[in-house]
Amino acid sequence: MAKIVKFIYVMIILIFLFLVSTNIDAIRNKCFRPSDCPPSMYCDAGFQIGCVRKICTCLRILAPIDFVPT
């Protein structure tokens, strides 16, 4: 009885590890330029699509810094 339970636990762990290792990059979109990102990718207001470390992400648009002293 204990051997059957141990076998089932081992099979569950092996199946889980196999599923995780095969889908590791399934969600991320790879790119070299922002134009490589899919057109269906949506960013909220104040963000724009960008390419960071070859992955499509939404980047915050910052206001330009004024370096002129007033």
From TrEMBL:
Keyword NAD: no
Signal peptide: 1-26
Residue span(s) of domain Late nodulin: 1-57
Keywords: Signal
InterPro entries on file: Nodulin_late_dom
Pfam families in the cross-refs: Nodulin_late
One Gene Ontology molecular-function label: metal ion binding
Protein name: Nodule Cysteine-Rich (NCR) secreted peptide
Taxonomic source organism: Medicago truncatula
